[in-house]
Amino acid sequence: MKTISFRNDILPLKNVLYRLALRITLSHEDAEDVVQDTLMKVWSRRNEWQQIDNIEAYALTAARNIALDKMKRAGVNVTSPLSTLTSTPVENTTQLEERIIEQDRLQFVRNLIDQLPEKQRSCMQLRDVEEKSYKEIAQILNISEEQVKVNIFRARQSIKQKFKEADEYGL
Length: 171
What we know:
- The structure is a single chain.
- This protein has helices at residues 6-10, 14-25, 28-44, 55-74, 93-115, 118-129, 134-141, 145-169.
- It is mainly α.
- Helix 2 crosses helix 3 (28-44).
């Protein structure tokens, strides 16, 4: 049986927890609060760590639940950009125009993802960003693997359709 260490096993999860919380809350400040609350919750259950099969799944589940509770208490989904793109020096006008178009498209896709239902957003975040397996996602979200696959499929189809419509019609 592996001994779980807060410093070695749980603290390194803070970035993964933050990204998941940010995807749910859409607010940097709220996501930071969720991570802090999650770490405190996991620490408070330190006497039970050895009985937990997968401490990462436990922490991600706790973060998701805390983020959802925070959103319910707020009563309103606050929309804000997920991240700002860092700018790099551009050598000529053509490169600048291409970079601006690329940034606009990335922001548009982020906005489309933000508009997805929470479960679809969480599934996409865990699968496409955190590279979790369907089994791990199912465990974290407490749903079946088939539901995970369906949520990811629907999310991707929705984003693809809306992006295509906007690209074709200039919306």
